[in-house]
Amino acid sequence: MTAVAEAYAGEDPDSPLVDQAASGDSRAFKQLYERHYKRVYALCLRMTANPESAEECTQEAFIKAWRKLDTFNKQSRFSTWLHTLASRTTLDYLRKHKSWLKLVFSQEEESIPEAHGPSLEQDNIELSSLDKLLCRLPERARVVFTLHGVEGYRHVEIAEMLGISSGASRAQYHRARNLLQEWLDHEAE
C-alpha cells in the first residue's frame, strides 16, 4: 500500500457508488466522474502543462477506470486508485507525445478554457500563480514535483513509475523547488 493509500485508510465515501458502477451501473460511474473530474483534470494539467493534453489524459483515465473498475481491490480509497491511474495514464501520454509537448507556452496565454463534460458543476478552472509556474518547469521536474509535492508519492514510487533512480527523483524535485522559489522571488520584486 502506498503512502497516499495509507493516509486515506478507513471508510471510503465512494464505496457504494463503486460497487454499483462495478456491477455495470453507468449512472453511478457518472456520479464518480462528477465527483472526481476536477481533481483528476488538475493533476493531468499539472503534469502536461497543456489544457488540451490534460483533457485528453483525463478522459483516457476515466475510460480506463470504467474498464478496470472490477480490478479495484479496495485496499485504498477509490480516489487514490483513480489518481494513480490518472498519473500513469498521463505519464504514458507524455512518453508518447514527448516531442509535441516540448512546445513553449507563453505565460500570458496560459489560461484554461471552460471545462466541458457531462453534468460538470463548475464554470471554469483557472490556473493559480503556482500552477502557471509549474507549467514553465522542464517536463521531468514538473512531473516529479507534481507526483511528490502535490500528490504525495514517495521518491521510490516515483522512480518506479518513471524508470529512474530515487536519487534522480529527489534531484528533479529539488530542481523544481529551486526554480519555483527563484520565480516566486522574482515575481515578488
Produce the secondary structure layout.
Blueprint: H1 3-7, H2 15-22, H3 26-48, H4 51-68, H5 78-96, H6 129-136, H7 139-150, H8 155-162, H9 166-188
Helix pairs in contact: 2-3, 3-4, 3-5, 3-7, 4-5, 7-9, 8-9
Describe the structure.
There is one protein chain. This protein is elongated. It is 66% helix and 0% strand. The protein is mainly alpha-helical and 189 residues long. It folds into two domains: 3-127, Rna Polymerase Sigma Factor, Chain: A; 137-189, Orthogonal Bundle (Arc Repressor Mutant, subunit A), CATH 1.10.10.10. It is built from nine helices and no strands. It has helices at 3-7, 15-22, 26-48, 51-68, 78-96, 129-136, 139-150, 155-162, 166-188. The longest helix is centred in the first third of the chain and has 23 residues, at 26-48.
Q: Provide the CATH topology of the largest domain.
A: Rna Polymerase Sigma Factor, Chain: A
For the CA atoms, what is the radius of gyration? 17 Å
Biggest pleated sheet? none
Inertia-based shape? elongated
> Kindly state the mean pLDDT as a whole number?
80
User: What's the tally of helices?
Assistant: 9
The unreliable regions are 1-9, 99-126
The CATH architecture classification of the largest domain is: Orthogonal Bundle
Q: Structural class, from helix and strand content?
A: mainly alpha
Put the structure in a nutshell.
With about 190 residues, the chain is an all-alpha fold. The chain is built from 9 helices and no strands. The longest helix is centred in the first third of the chain and has 23 residues, at about 25-50.
